[in-house]
């Protein structure tokens, strides 16, 4: 029997990340992160945009919590800025930095909104990058200290913890493709970074477990890739296998099974011998998880390349020369990402199968569109409503087919700093006027409020009459 409504107790949330929303880059003891540096490097971020002010969430968080409360949200997924709370990446905490997160969390709790805290959403203290960054083992060790310090400070009021957000982006967009901070392009360094991010997760989870109350729930957030082969040929199936290893199994292998996949080690043998993996690392990385966060936006389609031309520019997939990427068919968002909710269903079912008993959450899902206010100042975003509806329907189908999904977080609460795209891409269900920083809920925010209230999916689009069931 397909489900027509979400189970009672299903958690509805929205997500942001520190560098993308906070601003206040020079407030308190905060030092620059690798994103501050990257934004100041000419040509790296569209329009020369930076996170200096962003949405000014640092000063406007009470208004943002009120907005979430008005939408009926049960949870807010946010991240802590490492250089705000531990300015040099080592040593003592900044009390002023921690106080900001205490105020935010207390305001959330006062509104009945559960805080879901991510320790690392890409804003590495620049000092740690200058000391070697994620390719160096020391950064993973520093992360454990940072986790301990935040756990000790906020463990009395935050029950849900995530070590890392999307380590794939940190390792491969940051150190191989160079399109994210710190903008390095060295395949061997990117694979070292992936391992040290895995290790940071394991050491961080251990550190949290040691300071948090037993009831605390510890997780990691991944962006597993739903990779499809262009044709059923053996060559395309092999291309699919290689990209699956480099995007998903490089993290889930160590984290869920305590081993790097053999095929990954073979595929990357020409780049590194993996001798940076020390005895005992894999046991640390396999630290038990209380839940797994899955971020999903779009699937990938790959084939064996039919010519031998090297791809233009550095790749985000070291060891996958000879794989061609194809735009999946279907409507596209402003990111040019194809809208295909079946990828979310497939990923949820995959983890339900491969990690039985591990609760899952959709920790990010959403879309960018070219939103602008109409003459009255209202923002109508029917494409986003259709996107969310389709993906929530996929979650409902996965729930009906036995996946243990406890919650869904829309990316994002607010329009914000979309990394290398600057402010040109708007993912929010709430519009931000970057001149005045005024917030205006889009029609998708009202639609989402109705979903949250009823636990059902009304028809896409405003003013289309009464709701019908979710299938
Ligand atoms: C995620 N890719 O980033 C992040 O967690 C968010 O901070 C971000 O705003 C959101 O998705 C939308 O982009 C990604 O190129 C960035 O595959 C790039 C990719 C994937 C995720």
From TrEMBL:
Its EC number is 3.2.1.21. Keywords: Carbohydrate metabolism, Cellulose degradation, Glycosidase, Hydrolase, Polysaccharide degradation. Gene3D superfamilies: Glycosidases. It comes from the Bacteria. It catalyses: Hydrolysis of terminal, non-reducing beta-D-glucosyl residues with release of beta-D-glucose. Pfam families: Glyco_hydro_1. Belongs to the glycosyl hydrolase 1 family. This is Beta-glucosidase. The lineage of its organism: Bacteria, Bacillati, Actinomycetota, Actinomycetes, Kitasatosporales.
């Amino acid at each position: 029997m397909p489900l027509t409504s979400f189970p009672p107790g299903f958690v509805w949330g929205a997500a942001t990340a520190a560098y993308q929303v906070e601003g206040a880059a020079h407030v308190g003891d905060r030092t620059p992160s690798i994103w501050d540096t990257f934004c100041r490097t000419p040509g790296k971020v569209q329009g020369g945009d930076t996170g200096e002010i962003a949405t000014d969430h640092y000063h406007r968080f009470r208004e943002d919590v009120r907005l979430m409360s008005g939408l009926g949200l049960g949870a807010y997924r946010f991240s802590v800025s490492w250089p705000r709370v531990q300015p040099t990446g080592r040593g003592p905490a900044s009390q002023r930095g921690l106080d900001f997160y205490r105020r935010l969390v207390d305001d959330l709790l006062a509104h009945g909104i559960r805080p879901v805290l991510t320790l690392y959403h890409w804003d590495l203290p620049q000092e740690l990058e200058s000391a070697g960054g994620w390719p160096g083992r020391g950064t993973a060790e520093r992360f454990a200290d940072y986790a301990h310090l935040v756990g000790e400070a906020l463990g009395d009021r935050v029950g849900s913890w995530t070590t890392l957000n999307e380590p794939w982006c940190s390792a491969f967009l940051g150190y191989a493709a160079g399109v994210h901070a710190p903008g390095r392009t060295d395949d061997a360094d990117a694979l070292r970074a992936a391992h040290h991010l895995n290790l940071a997760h394991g050491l961080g989870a251990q550190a949290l477990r040691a300071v948090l109350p037993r009831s605390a729930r510890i997780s990691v957030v991944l962006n597993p890739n739903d990779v499809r082969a262009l044709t059923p040929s053996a060559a395309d199936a092999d291309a699919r296998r290689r990209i699956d290893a480099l995007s998903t199994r490089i993290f889930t292998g160590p984290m869920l099974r305590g081993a790097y996949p053999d095929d990954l080690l073979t595929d990357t043998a020409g780049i590194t011998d993996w001798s940076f993996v020390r005895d005992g690392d894999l046991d640390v990385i396999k630290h038990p998880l209380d839940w797994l966060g899955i971020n999903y936006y779009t699937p990938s389609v790959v084939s064996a390349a039919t010519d031998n031309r090297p791809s233009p520019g550095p790749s985000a997939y070291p060891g996958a020369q000879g794989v061609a990427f194809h735009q999946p068919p279907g409507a596209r968002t402003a990111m040019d990402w194809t809208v295909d909710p079946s990828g979310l269903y497939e990923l949820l079912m995959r983890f339900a199968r491969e990690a039985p008993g591990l609760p899952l959450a959709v920790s990010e899902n959403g879309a960018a569109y070219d939103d602008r206010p109409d003459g009255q100042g209202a923002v109508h975003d029917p494409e986003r409503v259709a996107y969310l509806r389709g993906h929530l329907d996929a979650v409902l189908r996965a729930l009906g087919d036995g996946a243990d999904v406890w919650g869904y977080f829309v990316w994002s609460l607010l329009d914000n700093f979309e990394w290398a795209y600057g402010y040109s891409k708007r993912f929010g269900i709430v519009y931000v006027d970057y001149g005045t920083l005024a917030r205006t809920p889009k029609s998708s925010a009202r639609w989402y409020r109705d979903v949250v209230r009823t636990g059902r999916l009304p028809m896409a689009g405003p003013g289309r009459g009464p709701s019908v069931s979710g299938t």
